[in-house]
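Reading group handout, session on sequence-to-structure problems. Before we discuss, look at one worked example. The prompt was deliberately terse, the way you'd type it at a terminal:

> structure Bcr/CflA family efflux transporter

The input record follows.
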Amino acid sequence: MTTDFQTKELQEPKAQLGRIEFIALIAALMAINALAIDIMLPGLQEIGASLGVTTENHRQYVISAYLFGFGFSQLAYGPISDRFGRRAPLLIGLLIYVLSAIGAALSPSFAMLLGFRVLQGVGAAATRVIAVSIVRDTFGGRQMAEVMSLVMMVFMVIPVIAPATGQLIMLFGEWHLIFAFMALMALAVTLWSFFRLPETLHPENRRPFTAGSVARGFGIVLGNRAALCYTLATSFILGSLFGFINSAQQIYVGIYHLDELFPLAFAAVAATMSLSSFLNSRLVGRFGMRRISHTMLLIFIIVSLIWLILSMRGSGPVPFPLFLAMFAAVMFCFGSIGANFNSLAMEPLGNVAGTASSVLGFTQTLIGATIGAIIGQSFNGTTTPIAAGYFVLGAIALVCVLFAERGKLFQPHNAPAPHVVQGE
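And the output record:
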């Protein structure tokens, strides 16, 4: 195996990415999606006050609008990237992201801001779909899970620093500067991709962009038992996470009165997800994706149930140290579940990686964002709706996994994935 990622057939740009730069670039592409969500959290209150939003829960639409634009548009990027390659659609999506962030910064009304947030999600969808497709073009099986775990480890740095960055920006200016900062970061990633990222889709693997071809590609994805069930499982787990993100500012500030310390608490939990992704990358080659992710899902459900029981006692909120410990434990589990479930869903779909990534991303984001919005709008001044969401959705995800594995958990599968280009 080589130490350089390379594509012999396609020479633009004429550069070889070492493994470290490859992982860093893929993580950066995915990170600007997380940035668009997490950096907003400290500014939601000021955005609402500035643009005349009188209902507290309605501020959450800044997050939900982005997620819905992000979810629906993923359906288009996959088939397009399977036909025209990865580079061009990715660069176009990045430019849409940059321009819509600038538009949001200049928005005079809440409705216009939400419109630009939807458009920003449309641009960001390219980064999610195509970044995963690039990894699948290059790696397969446990190697893909290892690389995705390392990508997620770097990617999780954004939730650690983004709220604090947003808080810092708010100290020196208004909420408009948050969007300007997003535009600058996305522009930097765009230039990095333009000059350094080679095309990873080989000409012989391109699929025609016709209605019949797209329909057949979608049929392959939706007809695969493991891919569909693991996608649904991920969707429900994401729904619980999005529900918390929508309510994070209200929980940390409204319930626990952390005020300026809110980004620090948010970062502490996000750091556990990054640690989990790193440990997964070290252990997945030895224990396998199924053993690790199934174990973490069971722990996720058990801790969530304990959290729910404690939150329903009726004697005030769960003490903050206990809340933070339980939430950190749940999100530590999430760090291993996400990378492995996505790899398990993509593993049998190498022939239609772009279409597969778009269908998986669309399903996960649409279901996750819808459930997250419902949980967020159910916020009632306690953590009970969030805890209930984590437990119930974790249990539903377990049912999906049992369907995928025909009732057997922890069973390793070592069959090689088709059409794998080894990059290391």
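Points for discussion. First: The two ends are 5 Å apart (CA to CA). Second: Residues 78 and 358 are 5 Å apart (CA to CA).
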